[in-house]
Design brief:
- With 228 residues, this protein is an alpha+beta fold.
- It has helices at residues 7-29, 33-54, 57-88, 148-151, 174-183, 185-226; strands at 102-106, 111-113, 121-132, 137-139, 144-145, 161-173.
- The chain has two domains: 7-88; 95-205, Jelly Rolls (Sandwich), CATH 2.60.120.10.
- It contains six helices and six strands; from the N terminus they run αααβββββαβαα.
- A hairpin with a 4-residue loop joins strand 3 and strand 4.
- Helix 5 (174-183) crosses helix 6.
- The radius of gyration is 30 Å and the shape is elongated.
- The N and C termini lie far apart (105 Å).
């Protein structure tokens, strides 16, 4: 243990303590977690240095405890960011999800559910082909169906889904979806991204249909004028 014995040593101790205090204040003012943890760990190191030189043992012990805690939280935040990036790239490993699912098999012609039915679960398509009847859109392995029912205020199906080629799905109840949403950031972000993309696709499709209808009305109007 080094104790300050000269004026220069005392000046250095004061400089270290001032830097630690300033960084500690900055840490309390920060709003984002990663920079906050970096500042917190730097502050811990400075306080450890200062308290060891000044023989302030309570502060030394406290920061020796806080430093690994901040380091652990920093590692957890980095892992969370990595998981979110994986989810954003569509990399969702299904293995961890299987214990929460029920395997369902469907033959061609089977209707999974009709528009307006009560919605209680979503399906991950593992094989086969399915069709959104109202929009005549096909879905195959890797797609998710029934997720919008969870977001619909009345918890009802927003479309009719029909199996057009025998296949298998993994069904997950909405209760489990809600638990997984909060417990696993990768799944939560993936579900949010998927639902948003599905809504935007629906909006774009409706806009395209409206544009086609307006063009047809304009064509019929022009034909009617020309035929007078």
């Amino acid at each position: 243990m080094h104790f300050p014995t000269s004026l220069s040593d005392i000046d250095f101790v004061m400089l270290v303590s001032a830097a630690a205090v300033i960084l500690n204040i900055i840490g309390y003012l920060m709003k984002t977690m990663i920079p906050l943890r970096i500042v917190a760990m730097t502050t811990n190191c400075l306080f450890i240095l200062w308290s060891s030189m000044a023989a302030v043992y309570p502060t030394l012990i406290l920061n020796c405890i806080l430093l690994p805690i901040n380091a652990m939280r920093f590692g957890q935040m980095k892992k969370l960011i990595r998981q979110v990036n994986e989810a954003a790239n569509g990399d969702l490993n299904m293995d961890w999800l299987k214990p929460f699912t029920t395997s369902r098999s469907f033959t061609a012609g089977t209707v999974l559910f009709n528009k307006g039915d009560e919605a209680t679960e979503l399906h991950f398509i593992m094989s086969g082909r399915f069709r959104v009847v109202e929009r005549n859109v096909e879905l195959s392995a890797g797609s998710i169906i029934g997720e919008l029912g969870l977001l619909e205020p009345g918890k009802t199906r927003t479309a009719t889904i029909e199996c057009i080629e025998s296949g298998e799905t993994l069904a997950v109840s909405y209760d489990h979806v809600m638990q997984l949403y909060f417990q696993n950031p990768t799944f939560g972000f993936y579900f949010l991204q998927l639902s948003t993309a599905r809504l935007f696709n629906t909006i774009n499709g409706l806009e395209g249909e409206n544009a086609a209808l307006r063009a047809e009305v304009a064509r019929l109007g022009a034909a009617a004028v020309a035929g007078r």
